[in-house]
């Protein structure tokens, strides 16, 4: 039980990092103006009364001190107002506080609360805080608390990673791949999503073979495979890859565990690393934007020689199950698709590529039937561009 609690504590620590909670601190603005207020970090849950932290007035002596606040998506109130304390606008969008004592006014400000009056799980309000000719604005984050989704990592790679394969027609190559996996990973789970025209049995220990309707496509198979994963990570491999003596899944896991913000870490297939950046220009609201794929990385991943941040990687990568599921794979893309997943995940998935995390590529001669599916007609390309025109609001894609 103690070991389980330690693993859970570590998973929750990483969850806090991934969700940005380690940056979730209150930042107060000092009284460069007479007004002190929270510049960032004030977060409330929808329709729940919450004290506004850090409000204060710092100024020279006056006969009367008066401050006012106004909001748009909620109401303001001061708790426990006593007789003689001057508060106007209780439980309204605009509230003012007056006092002949600066100490009393600041005491009232310390009891000021905000309650959102609309229900929304992720929105923001702005509070306008004023004194005489001075006015400041600070944000109020309105967020519904989310429940952590944690995976019990267990103690070895078998409880940490599931190997995923999309299969189509190439059973000879698939069996070579499975046998090569079993050399160093005899117990790791393998999930095969198979949309072959005439499915054959795939036998072996700890293999889940899912038969799909024929020719449903590349991304539909990926979605099916990822949907069945119960481990924190999955390793994506093609059905014609082969594990080498130096292929080590643990190397991927070590990087992901050390950098909890990472969602995808790519390796290399033979000498092919195929890491790329996506240059995205939003364009205007009528025409849409443009995406250009460039064979280049962003910056080194600190602490890991040979690893670099990128926007996309080769078809051999370790994925964080929960993060990849959120992006998903567009089942419209049946035959030629890979970059499109990273386009959909741009800005949501943190991706890196690492040299030395290698896997082999089998030498084989594809059948005519496989080639006919692998290389679609031009009509497919036109339909694909039309799809991206609408779905991703793009007028051009340049690979």
Give the averaged pLDDT, no decimals.
91
CATH domain class name of the largest domain:
Alpha Beta
How big a fraction of the residues is strand?
25-35%
- Residue share in helix: 10-25%
What is the distance, rounded to the nearest whole angstrom, between the alpha carbons of the first and last residues?
52 Å
Shape: elongated
The structural domain count equals: 2
**Class by alpha and beta content:** alpha+beta
Number of helices: 9
CATH level-two architecture of the largest domain: Alpha-Beta Complex
Determine the oligomeric state from the structure: single chain
Largest sheet: 9 strands, mixed
Compute the CA-based radius of gyration. Answer: 28 Å
Enumerate the spans where pLDDT stays under 50 for 5 or more consecutive residues: none
CATH topology of the largest domain: Spore Coat Polysaccharide Biosynthesis Protein SpsA, Chain A
CATH superfamily of the largest domain: Spore Coat Polysaccharide Biosynthesis Protein SpsA, Chain A
DSSP, total strands: 24
GO molecular function, one term: acetylgalactosaminyltransferase activity
Domain Glycosyltransferase 2-like: 162-281
InterPro entries: Glyco_trans_2-like, Nucleotide-diphossugar_trans
Pfam families: Glycos_transf_2
